[in-house]
Amino acid sequence: MERTKSKKAFEEAIKYIPGGVNSPVRALKAVGETPLFIDHAADNKIYDIDGNSFTDYCLSWGVFLLGHAHPKVNKAVVEAVGRGTSYGIPSLQETELAKLVNTCFPTMQRVRFVNSGTEATMSAIRLARGYTGRNYIVKFEGHYHGHADHLLVSAGSGVARLGKSSSAGVPESFVSQTIVVPYNDTVALEQLFKEKGNEIAAIILEPVAANMGVVPPQEGYLKFLRELTLQYHSLLIFDEVITGFRLSVGGAQKLYGIEPDLTTIGKIVGGGFPAAAFGGKAEIMQMLAPDGPVYQAGTLSGNPIAMSAGIATLSELMQAGFYDKLNAKVDKFESELREAILNKGMVLNRVGPMFTLFFKEGKVENFSDVRQTDQERFARFFRYMFSKGIYVSPSQFESNFISIKHTEEDLSRFVDLTRQFEK
Ligand code: KE4
């Protein structure tokens, strides 16, 4: 595969950008490759500057449920740009997207837009602390909620790969009130709440973990978390930056029938533009400035371009039958892939249109299971698929994503190539 231009571009990028990338996981360090430089993308494919094309299962880390460069999203954005790209003053598009979010997520009675998932979770936690007057936050091993200092503790995604319990540059005092517990475990959590429950502001979790690879909640676990937090008057925060609008039009909370107090969303809601949001019960959200004492702000928050992209995106995925069509495709893919990996030392975890192939025997139900995976073998699998024109998410600690634009042929080819993979 010709990669000369990307390699040259990477050498040039490294001279100006740390690691040559603007986000660590893009560097492909985990899989022993150098990054692609993309020329353009459309639907289910990305095209690099050397003229190679790849079927894309990373989709800009889960943004493109509709596929890249959706014509209706592009049209909305082009029209919006002509009216100016930011006002720093309210626009109708902000209320329009907030109403669509509220329609999809009825628990989000009030919505505040921000520019990234990190901002959303950081703000939601500040709000939870402000509302409850408590300081402790509980998160789970291997769950990733962005790179705010107090959340970079035993996180998943890129940090999991680094094997650090927290990032350099984060003083111990910043994480001293962040408690990390094992995922899918009830005993540790019950014990913790017995000891500190009335000091805990909130539990935050990915309702279906994706940043350690896809690891679903065990039967009844989300209900257990909801009951435990109600019992101790702590808040339950669902970080649906990945699961939101993906597992259903109302994310994981609709799929599993659990009502969190606060929710964060991102990726899909911005339609490929920097937009995310946090929201929840009106009585909690009204604690936010300018009405309440919890400060939160942002120059470009709710900008009309991202709002227009989000409105066009949600209008598409809210169409009747969208998820039935998507999930029917993925159901067939799952059953064929399960057959293909029999006796190959691989575990498939799948929820909705997201999935991870783990390179180990047995099961993967928590972070310690994930840590037992053979990451070198995963890296060989990545490079094998890469050589065949398939771009899987470049880390064992990530999810793969299927868009509405992935074809049955794409999925069958993924299955066939996985079946043939031996090394
Ligand atoms: P951002 O700040 O990257 O927009 O969102 C942070 C975030 C929050 N919550 C969840 C559940 C997330 O998955 C993320 C970001 N996801 C990673 C990939 N797993 C983004 C990719 C990257 O870091 O480059």
What is CATH's topology name of the largest domain? Aspartate Aminotransferase, domain 2
The percentage of residues in β strands lies in 5-15%
CATH homologous superfamily assignment of the largest domain: Type I PLP-dependent aspartate aminotransferase-like (Major domain)
Bound molecules: ligand KE4
Can you summarize the main beta sheet? 7 strands, mixed
* CA distance, first residue to last residue: 20 Å
Order of strands across the biggest sheet? 4-10-9-8-7-5-6
Overall shape: globular
- Which class of the largest domain in CATH terms? Alpha Beta
What does this protein look like?
The protein is α/β, with parallel strands linked by helices and 423 residues long. The chain folds into three domains: 56 residues, no CATH class; 247 residues, 3-Layer(aba) Sandwich (Aspartate Aminotransferase, domain 2); 45 residues, no CATH class. The chain is 38% helix and 14% strand. It has a seven-stranded mixed beta sheet, with helices on both faces. A four-stranded mixed beta sheet has the order 1-2-3-13. α13 runs parallel beside α16. The protein is globular. Ligand KE4 binds next to α5 and α6. The site of ligand KE4 has 20 residues, from α5 and α6.
